[in-house]
Design goal:
The chain is mainly beta and about 400 residues long. The chain has one domain (about 1-404): monomeric porin ompg (Porin). It is built from 6 helices and 23 strands. The chain has helices at about 1-10, 45-50, 65, 300-305, 315-320, 395-404, and strands at about 80-85, 95-105, 110-120, 125-130, 135-140, 140-150, 155-170, 175, 180, 185-195, 200-205, 205-220, 225, 230, 235-245, 250-265, 270, 290, 320-330, 335-345, 350-360, 365-375, 385-395. The strands form 5 sheets. Strands 1-2-3-6-7-10-12-15-16-19-20-21-22-23 form a 14-stranded antiparallel barrel. Strand 19 (about 320-330) and strand 20 (about 335-345) form a beta hairpin. The longest helix has 10 residues, at about 1-10.
Length: about 400
Amino acid sequence: MKKIVFAATVALINTSLFAQDLTNDYLNNLNTISTSVPFLSIAPDSRAGAMGDVGVATSPDQNSIHWNASKLAFIEKDQGLSISYTPWLQDLVPEISLSYLSGYKKLNSRSAVASSLRYFSLGEIQFTGGDGTNLKKFSPNEFAFDGAYAMKLSENFSAGVAMRYIYSNLTGGINIEGGGATKPGNSFAVDLSSYYQSDAFEIDEKDAYWAAGINLSNMGNKISYTDGGEEHFLPMNARVGGSLFLELDDFNTVSFAVDVNKLLVPTTPVYAVSEDGSKILDNDGNQVIESGKDPNVGVVQGIFQSFSDAPGGSKEELNELMFSVGAEYWYMKQFALRGGYFYEHETKGGRKYFTVGLGLKMNVFSLDAAFLLPATSGVKSPLANTLRFTLLFDMESLYATNKN
């Protein structure tokens, strides 16, 4: 059913499946890693979105639960709330959007709790049968609800954990010809994170500090959309990074950050084929693997296998790394200017884009905006002109204003 295939393709935004060039030149073959619910990997807030999608070691804010929940143990304000909206892939398909609500509460000087709700809408889809007959219209949607806890283990180091419920309804229960009834996918996942923030020091007589973080995210059971059908990995991911904060003077501050990402999901192997292009099967009826490893494994094995199963060996494993760099400038702690760059290897999806953004901070609320600019000239990217908006509230200041 073409519309079901279309909906699934749109849902797999970051991990589209492409045919492999079955040659021995594995390093130059397009071999993207596919997962379910890739909306979990989309940067939900404008600050990180304006800085090339960095966030694991940037200063903590209301959206830290997505990037690194352990940062919240270092946040200064007592409580905060954030609302974000992103029209997504507008140059490809209209009516796709990501909405995000996130908040936190400090329990004491050393710990904090947080929660978030992420909703991804794919617009309205007209499902048709194999003969072209219209069956029904449906609006595919996905959401995830998070809860997190962060605690300082020392004056400079914190750890955090986030629990996540994931719901993905791509077909509305429609029957697939030859495949039976479909159903929404459900899963539970966990994030494990840590954060280190150095003591203040000086660089050229200017106050500075550095930070580092790691977040292992979306580690959970696979998702299936049919009873007894194929199961799909979540976008399990390892994110590590660092940042440097520098106070230039009483009015100007600047920070720089770098993140490195790797999906903790098995890479699709290259399967052996005969001279006429037909599949070669073993005695058990399974397709013979020419290079790489069997991706049909459990979650734990899949995580460890993801570091050594690429058909092109260690060089292809390096190609699976994604890089983000970003910078943020503040004037009088009220006006922010941000920029960044995201890089993904051509054989793993080829996403490359620059990001820019602005921030305005008032006593009670802040407004951030981010804009995405494709970095590949001559190629029309579905990510082009992506604009994010985020409204952040300092609830502590809001309550104080109301009392006055």
